[in-house]
Amino acid sequence: QVQLVESGGGLVQAGGSLRLSCAASGNIFSGDVMGWYRQAPGKQREFVATVTSSGSTNYADSVKGRFTISRDNAKITVYLQMNSLEPEDTAVYYCRYSNIWGGRVTWGQGTQVTVAS
C-alpha dihedral over 68, 72, 76, 79, to 10 degrees? Predict the structure, then answer.
């Protein structure tokens, strides 16, 4: 079993920045994928960005050029640096951990990000 602890959400003005962190512990896979998804009120949860244990990254089109995902493998921690935030980025952000094939998924508890216009 894997446990995820998220931090870093909050309230920010449009154009501002926030950094989210998610630390994993427990039965860590030798090859894995860590990432972020988000869910706005009244909408479905959507993909934001992922990074594999080998460093390959993937981003949603809506955040490309503004968000950067990275990870520290020694700490088993993933980060999401969010710049040029827009009100449309307001959502609960969830950390997601899986094996390298996308299975055995664990979700974090979620952290609120609110961008004021």
Answer: -20
DSSP assigned state of 97: E
Q: How far apart are CA 83 and CA 100, in angstroms?
A: 28
Secondary structure class of 21 (helix, strand, coil): strand
Q: How confident is the prediction along the chain (117 residues), in pLDDT tens digits per residue?
A: 999 999 999 999 999 999 999 999 999 998 999 999 999 999 999 999 999 999 999 999 999 999 999 999 999 999 999 999 999 999 999 999 999 998 999 999 999 999 999
Q: Taking a C-beta distance cutoff of 8 angstroms, is the pair 83, 53 a contact?
A: no
